[in-house]
User: What shape does this take?
Amino acid sequence: MRLLKRGEKRRSLVRQEAERNLCRKLRRRLEASLSRSLGPDAPWVQRHVAHCPRCRKRLADLGRVDWALRIIKSQPHSLDLLKRANSCAVRMLNHKLRDGARQRRLDEAGPEPALIERCRKYENVAVNVAACIAILFLTKAGLFSSFARARTEGHQAMKQYYATQAGQDLADDIFQG
Amino acid sequence: MFDKAATYDLFWDSAACEAVEESQRWILTAMQRYGHELVTMLWRILGNEQDVCDAYQTTFVHLAHRDGGQKPRRLKAYLFRTASNTAISILRRQMAEKKVLSNVAEAPSEAADPGRDFDTKYLAESLRRHLAQLPAHLQDVIMLRDLGELSYAEVARALGISVGTARVYRCKAVQLLAAWMKTGEE
Assistant: This one.
């Protein structure tokens, strides 16, 4: 059933297309026939023009325009013209679109202070953070533990010196704390 | 020849095309589709390759910036009308420049010379000069129909007039051109 309906639909489409083609053909023939019987090449027009100087002049003027149009149409341009035109257009298009975005940004932009001025309020915070980071870094690097070790060793060397020079008891008294 | 070259992408600067934004790619498609016809029409109107390139790129820049880059409903009509208007502007500007530079007094005597009818260059230039002076509604029709080689139906659709009106306008345009080219008056 469905196949039958589909077949009918297809047949009606083909019929419509054929009718349309016939219309087109008829129109073309009608136009050709009209231009043959009413155009400047029609025999009765030619007969009249041969005896009428005014019409001859008018026809010649119209013919001149027609001829000029034909000349313009027949003049060839160089083969790479389309390529050049396309390249120019694409380049200009890129440029314009890019500049358009930039222009929009510029239009929307207001007066703004310089970056240093904008960051000045964070100056103290930034210095404190930097100091913290430096301390952390130094701690991580083991610098403070090296200082402590150097101090202990120096303390012991001094105690040893006093012990040899002034006696152990006095050295113990001095370095008790 | 042109069709073959277009098929093999000989007319495309692919590197430049890749740089175009994704949202604007339809413009490139339009360029590829109507480019040849547009260039032919512009060449016929202007007769100078540099001017053709200028008019062509102006047309597509107009298209890209139209309504914030929105694709027009009748793309072909829009392109052809913009291109023909741009070409006419260029032609008028050139004529004004020529008028300033050349000796205007000699022009009518040159036009009256019957031997000029056989000078193809003079005839083409004369037609271009007079085309630029036609009233806009007649000019549009003759540009699109004769130089753009659009059908009357396409011309009518592009200009928003009936096919009959388009035919009448073309007829009037040719009559006016014939009268002007005969007398050389402007």
About this structure: The interface with chain B takes residues 58, 61-62, 64-69, 71-73, 75, 77-79, 81-94, 96-97, 100 of chain A (CB under 8 Å).
